[in-house]
Amino acid sequence: MSKKSEHSTIHDIAQxxxxxxxxxxxxxxxxxxxxxxxxQAVKEQAEKMNYRPNLVAAGLRTGKTGILGIxxxxxxxxxxxxxxxxxxxxxxxxxxxxxxCQTGDSYEAEKSAVEALLRARVxxxxxxxxxxxxxxxxxxxIKQAKxxxxxxxxxxxxxxxxxVVIDDRLGAMLATEHLIEQGCRRIAHFAGLQHISIYKxxxxxxxxxxxxxxxxxxxxxxVFGEVKEGSGDAAVNTLYERGVSFDAIFSSSDFAAxxxxxxxxxxxxxIPDDVAIIGFANEPFTELVTPALSTVNQxxxxxxxxxxxxxxxxxxxxxxxxxxxxxxxxxxxIVRESSKRVIR
Amino acid sequence: MSKKSEHSTIHDIAQxxxxxxxxxxxxxxxxxxxxxxxxQAVKEQAEKMNYRPNLVAAGLRTGKTGILGIxxxxxxxxxxxxxxxxxxxxxxxxxxxxxxCQTGDSYEAEKSAVEALLRARVxxxxxxxxxxxxxxxxxxxIKQAKxxxxxxxxxxxxxxxxxVVIDDRLGAMLATEHLIEQGCRRIAHFAGLQHISIYKxxxxxxxxxxxxxxxxxxxxxxVFGEVKEGSGDAAVNTLYERGVSFDAIFSSSDFAAxxxxxxxxxxxxxIPDDVAIIGFANEPFTELVTPALSTVNQxxxxxxxxxxxxxxxxxxxxxxxxxxxxxxxxxxxIVRESSKRVIR
DNA sequence: TACCTTTGTTCAATCGTTTGCACAATACCC
DNA sequence: GGGTATTGTGCAAACGATTGAACAAAGGTA
Lengths: 344, 344
Prior knowledge:
2 copies of one chain form a homodimer. By secondary structure, chain A is α/β, with parallel strands linked by helices. The first copy, chain A, has 3 domains: about 10-55, lambda repressor-like DNA-binding domains (434 Repressor (Amino-terminal Domain), Orthogonal Bundle); about 65-165 and about 300-330, Response regulator (Rossmann fold, 3-Layer(aba) Sandwich); about 170-300 and about 335-340, Rossmann fold (3-Layer(aba) Sandwich), CATH 3.40.50.2300. Chain A has 12 helices and 12 strands. Chain A has a 6-stranded parallel sheet with strand order 2-1-3-4-5-11, with helices on both faces. Chain A has a 4-stranded parallel sheet with strand order 7-6-8-9, sandwiched between helices. A two-stranded antiparallel ribbon of chain A has the order 10-12. In chain A, helix 5 (about 80-95) links the parallel strand 1 and strand 2. In chain A, helix 8 (about 170-180) runs parallel beside helix 9. Chain A is elongated and about 90 Å long. Chain A starts with 9 loop residues before the first helix and ends in a 10-residue tail after the last strand. The interface between A and B is large, with 59 and 59 residues. Chain A binds a DNA duplex through helix 2 and helix 4.
C-alpha cells in the first residue's frame, strides 16, 4: 500500500489491469479509440484505487493548467470580494480553479503578481490595475504569453486588453435623474479624483443628467478630491463654507455619502426631506445605516461572472486572432430612504 | 524568436551558453556545486531571454507546487474576505500562491472542492467547514495526501486537524463585562444556534461574565435561534412580548445587533442610555451606523496570517510526526457609541 | 485467398525541471 | 610524484500524464 508517492497513477491502474498507461489515459478521458469494456474496467479500478489525476503532470504535457489568475488591490474589500466570488463560481463550473494575488495598490507588488501567475502558468489573468500603476510593460508579458488578459474596474486603454466594466456614466446619470425626479433642483456632487476614469465618468453622468433636465451647472455644488471615508465629512463642510444652498447630494462613493449624512444629521438637517442623498457602489453597509442609503448597484458579482465567461470564450479562440472585447454592464439604482421623498 | 513554446526554458539558456540544462538549473537555484562565474552568466542570460521558470514542470518533479488551497463558504463575506487577504499576504511573502474554492455552504461543493485542490496538488488546505457538513470522510483524503489540513472559524474536533480560531468565549465575556461596567444589570443576549460551536462558546462567555459579577441568570433575557439580519428585529419583539425589562443587549452577531438597534430606535428607545448594545464580529458597517456599534473584533486578517504561518511551519515538519496544533487568537472589544454611557 | 478497413492497444516521445551519480580537472598533502 | 580530496559539469533518469504513430487482430469485400 505504501508506494513511493502518496497518490496512485495511471501506471498503477494499468499494471493492475494488465494494460498500458496510454490506454488508461484514453479510457479516463473518454477517448473514442478505446473499447467500452476496458473503459469500464479502468474507471472501476480508478475508483477502487482512489485515483486522482495529477493536474500538474497533465498541465506540463498539455500546457493547460486549469488555473485562472486574478490580481486585485485588496481581497478584503466588498467590491473585490464579490468579484472574486462571482468569478470563482462560474470558473469552477467549467473546471477551472482561481488563484488570487493582492497588490495592496503597489506597483512593485503588481509586477511580481504578474510574474508569479505566469510562473504558475495560469491560462488567463484578470486585473484591476493598481492605482499607482503608470507604466504597463509588465502587462505586455501576459500578452507575450498569449493568454487572455482581462481588465476590470480600473481599466487602461493603453494596454489594449479586453475589459469588463459597468457603465459608470449611466449609473451616475440614473442616480442624478432620480434626485431630480424627487424634486431636487440644487444637486451637489462629490466627484472623486478626476484622473481616475471611473470617477470622471460618474461626473460626466451627473452633468449629462443636469443638462438633459435643463438644470444649470453650478461649480460651487461640486466638490472634487478623494472620496474616502472622512472626505464626505469634509466635503459637506466645504459646501457650507462656500455658503451654497443644496437640496441633494450625489456622491461618487458610498463612503463619502455616509459620512456626509452623519455630518448633516449632526447639523440637524433632515434626510431626505431637506437633503436627499444617493451614493455609488452598493456597499453592504448602505442598507444598514439610518436612513438606509440609496445607491447605484455596481453588480460586482455579475462583473465577476462576466469576467469568467469572457475568459472561457477567449480561451477557445486562436490566440493570434483574439480581439480585445469590451463588455459593459448596466448598473441599476437602488432607491432607499435617504433619497425617497414623500409624494408631493 | 518564435519557438514552439511561448516561453524560454533552461535548455534554451543552456544552449546559448554551451552548458547543459542541469547546470543552468543549479545555477538558478544557487546550488553550491556550481562556479560563481557560470552562476552569473546563467542569471544574466536568463534575464536577457526573459526566462520564467515553469512551476508546473518543477512541481511535477519535486512534488511541490507552491500552492495553498482555501475552502470557504463564500468569498463575498467580510470575515472570509479578510481571512483570504491575510492568508494571501503572508503566503505570498514566502513564495506561495493561494487557490480559493467556495462551497456556498453545500456539502457536495465542499467535497468537490477538496478533490479539485488535491488534483491541483496544493501543498496544504485551509477549510472553514460548511454548515451542512456532517460527515468528514472527504477530509480524510487530505490527510491521506499527507499535506497540512488547517481548520478555522467553524472547526470540527472529529477531524483531528490543526485549528486556528479566536477565543469566542473570551470575546463574549469581555463584551458582557463591558456592558456591566457601563452600569447595565439586565443584559439581554441573542444567542444564535447552539449546535454551532462558536455560538455556544459566546453564550458561555456571557454566562461566565454574569456569574463573575454576581448577576443572576434570567432565561427570559436570552433569545435563541438564528442571528441573521431580520432575526435581530424579531428578537427584540420577543423580549417585549415576554414583558421583560432590559438595559443592554449582547448579540452574538453584528447583523442581529443592528436590526435590534433599528427596532429599538423605532420604539423611541435611546441608545445607549436606555439600552446599551454590543455585537460580535466587527463587520465593516458597524462603525458606519448611527450610533456606531460596539463589537468584538474577530481579527479576521490576523486569523488569515496565522493560518499561513501555521501552514509554513507544518510544511517543514516530517509528515509522519505532524501533530495537530491549535492556535487561539485573543479577540478585543471595540467600544463605540452604542454602548458607551456617559460617566455616572 | 488476398487485400483493405476498422478497432483497440501498445510504443515511445514529450512537456521542463530536478537531482543522484559519474567523471574530469584541478588542488592538496606527505 | 602518487594518491586523495575537492570542485564543477554532464548524463540520464525521473515526475505523471498525453498523444501521434505503429501495429496486431479481427471483420469485410471481392
